[in-house]
Predict the structure.
Amino acid sequence: MLRKLWYALLLVVIANSSVAQEKVPDKQVATAQEETPPSPTTVDPAQIQSLRLQLEAVQKANEDTSKTNQKNLDDMNKRLGDLRQQLDRAKGVANQIASLTTIVNETSAKLVALEAASQQVANSSIRVDEIRFLAGEEIQKVLVRNAATLSVSTKLGSTLSDFQKTMNPEADPDFKSELDKLQGRISRGRNNFVQRIRNSGWLANPLVSLAISFGTFLVEEHASEKLDDFTNVICLTEFASQNISDVRVIDQQIKNLDARVNEFKANSEARFSTYVASLGYPGGYRDVQSAINNTSQDPIPAVAADFFKKLPRRARPSDPLTAPYIAVRFQTDKVKDYIVEYDQLLKDTDAFFVSFQQIVERDAAATGECATKKSVVRATDQLRALAKNVAAARQQFQDAYLGSVSQESKRILYSGE
C-alpha cells in the first residue's frame, strides 16, 4: 500500500513538471532560457530504483514492527488477563483472610472465656471434692463410734438369759421340788446317780427331765394324790420342749449379728486409717480422736485444705499429685458403700428385735389344758414381760442408731452441696 502511494506521488511530480513547462509564456521562457541553462525533464531510473528499495525496506520494517507490536500487544493482553485473574483470586483470598481473621478473633475470645470458665469449674470441682472428703470423714467417725457399742447381746442385757431360763424346766421351783422328792425316795444307793444327773446338765433336756419326772411319779406313795403336781410338771416339760428350738434360733441369730458387728467394727477402723492416709495423714482413728480430745480440733480438715490447695487446676497424668488425687476421690466414693453396709446391719438388727419379740409373744400364748397349770402360767407371764423388754430394747436401739448418719451428711457426700 505504501509503495503504491510512493508511485502515485512520483507520477504526480513528473506530471506537474510537464504542465508547468507548457504554461510558461514565451517571453518568460525566453527570459529563462537566457538566464539559466536548460535542465533535463526526465527522472533518473537509478534514483527511482533507489527510492523503490528504500520504500520496500521501510515497508518491510513497518510490517515487522507491526507484527512485533501485535505480538507484544497480545502478550500484554494475556498478562493483563492473568493479572486480573490473580487480582480476583487475591481479592477472594483477602476476603477469606479477613473472614478467617474475624473467626480467629472470635474463637480466641471464646477460648479465653472457656479457659476462664474451665478454671472456675476446676476450682469449684476441687472445692467440691474437698467438702465431700470432709463429709466422708465425719460419717466414718460415726460408723466407728457406733460399731464399738453396737452389740445385740449387750443391748438385750439379761433378756436373753431370762428367756433361756424360762425355757428350762429345771429352773421352775415346782419341777425342782419334784426332783428333790425323787432323790429322797429312791434308795440310798442311787442318790449319787440322781445327783450326778443334775450336775451333768442333762436336765436342761426336756426329754430327760420328763423321764425323771415320770420316774418320780412311779415311785411316789399315794400317787393319785400327787397326780395334779405331776401333771403340772408334765405340762411345763411339754411347753419347754415345744419352744426349745426358739431358744436355739434366737441364740444363733444373736451370735451371727454380734459377729457381723465385730467385723464391721474392725473394718471401720481400718477403713478410716486408709481414708485419711490418702491425704498423707500418718495416724488412724484413735490418733484423730486423741487429737480431738487434747485440742478440741479435728486435724483432718487442715491436712485436707493443704492437700487440695496444692492440686493442679488441670490434672495431668504426669503430675505427681494426680495419682493421690484419684486415690482421695476413690476413697470418698467408697464411703457410700460403707454407709450401705452399715444401714443393712442396722436393718438386720432391727429385724432381729422384731422377730425375737414375735417369738416370745407366740411362746407366751399357751393354749389347751396346760395353759392353766401353775408352772406354765408362771412361764407365760415371764415371757410376756420379756416381750416388753425386747420391745424396749428395740426402741433404745432405734433411738441410738437409726438415723445416726444424717441425711444432710449423706447429701453432702453424694453431691458436695
User: Anything to note?
Assistant: The mean pLDDT is 76. The CA atoms of residues 142 and 171 lie 42 Å apart. The radius of gyration is 64 Å.
